[in-house]
Amino acid sequence: MPTQFLTQRNDLTQSTIIDCEPLSAKPGEVVLQVDRFALTANNITYGVAGDMIGYWQFFPAEGDWGRIPVWGMATVSASEHPSVNVGDRYYGYFPMSSELLVKPEKINARGFVDAVEHRSQLPAVYNQYTLVSIETGFAPNLDNHAMLYRPLFTTSFVLDDFFADNDFFGASQIILGSASSKTAFGLAFMLRKRAGLQVIGLTSSANVAFVNNLGLYDEVRTYDDVEAIKSAPSAYIDMAGNRGVLSRVHHHLNEQLRNSCGVGITHWEDRDGEAPESLPGAKPSMFFAPSQIMKRHEELGGAVYQQQIAEATSEFLEQVDAWVKIEEHPLAEVQSVYETVLNGAKPDSGLIVVG
Ligand SMILES: NC(=O)c1ccc[n+]([C@@H]2O[C@H](COP(=O)([O-])OP(=O)(O)OC[C@H]3O[C@@H](n4cnc5c(N)ncnc54)[C@H](OP(=O)(O)O)[C@@H]3O)[C@@H](O)[C@H]2O)c1
To answer: What is the pLDDT of residues 113-141, one digit of tens each?
Structure first.
């Protein structure tokens, strides 16, 4: 029996698994059988920001329930579309469920776009399904790595590029919040190639050893130790979204803080605190990767920029297994895997659910 994993939209600690009828395809539609997906703090952020950004609308559920999206891979199990074949595999955005019904359009050798009505107003990047093949950049036997790191490391790459493109806003030290997160240490991996920058990781005391062991940061500090950071022209790139820490970074560095860039909300339970717009130093803003990607596509051409991302990703993937071990769990364990990630999974694990 197919299953769906649901969470309460307004209380992510409440979740359930339900059985459901197998999906069937009408003309023009395709059923995708979800093979596997990755689960990280990024997916929890989709739930936390679900109403703000529309993440709940991708895979609607009944009543107060919602389906948090994940990046995964699926195989076509039924096709009523002449250009999509049973057995083909696609990478893209899925619910944590056994199956997904899609309506492929704009089909080419690289994949298709899901043109189902309820997704039509949502950001295009999430509606794209890419055929899994060497030609589209998927190395054999690295499916887990692709699902886990592609979405995160692309953000790391684009952040590094955005800051370099802006001469680091005059900062000589870059402080990363939630330094143990994959997105943050992917960024540190890119930043260490830039000359003349001090890269400082801020993390919780439980994760200091992991962050030190990465060898990617020049300095590692706990959240309690913000005030010990040297007063120098700085940028804060924040994956934690912890309002208390944000406030302390701003008050400590004050006018020396040249840029304050919000990227994530790993500390989703610590959202109370001083209003960001009233903090001293640079005004906090949210990073929007698609703007920088569009800018670079115009300047360099899409193929060149995508090639740069692909090369950097390969270099990162060659090293990342030394830091993070991939763990596979069956779909039957999805609820416990989700709870582990919600409560803060160990940073040295990369969790994959296999359908
Ligand atoms: N805007 C974008 O386009 C974009 C793209 C990719 C990722 N992001 C964001 O970047 C952030 C990191 O994502 P990721 O998938 O790379 O994370 P991840 O690797 O799963 O991060 C794990 C780390 O996050 C912190 N954490 C996780 N859950 C926590 C909890 N319940 N309480 C306290 N700390 C917790 C801990 O780090 P510390 O102890 O070091 O704080 C933990 O080691 C997410 O918020 C994600 O949404 C944004």
So the answer is: 999 999 999 988 899 999 999 999 999 89
Q: Per-residue pLDDT averaged across 188-204, rounded? A: 97
pLDDT of 271 > 90? The answer is no
Q: Whose alpha carbon is nearest atom 22 of ligand 1?
A: 181
Domain of residue 279 covers: 152-290
- From the CA of 40, give the closest atom in ligand 1: 20
- d(CA 221, CA 204) in angstroms, rounded, equals 8
In a domain, 310, yes or no: no
Domain membership of residue 9 (yes or no) is yes
Nearest CA to ligand 1 atom 18: 181
Per residue in 334-344, pLDDT (tens digit) is 999 999 999 99
Statement to judge: residues 14 and 131 lie in one domain: yes
SS (H, E, C) 260-279: EEECCCCCCCCCCCCCHHHC
* Residue 307 counted as domain residue: no
Domain membership of residue 147 (yes or no) is no
Q: Is 132 found in the same domain as 199?
A: no
CA nearest ligand 1 atom 15, residue: 42
Ligand 1 nearest atom to the CA of residue 43, by list position: 47
Ligand 1 within 6 A of CB of 242: no
Token pair belonging to 217: 């940061």
- Its sign, for the CA torsion 105, 92, 191, 239, is positive
Token pair in block for residue 155: 């953000």
The dihedral through the CA atoms of 60, 65, 68, 73 has a sign that is negative
The number of domains in the chain is 2
Please state the φ and ψ torsions of residue 115, each to the nearest 5 degrees: -100, 20
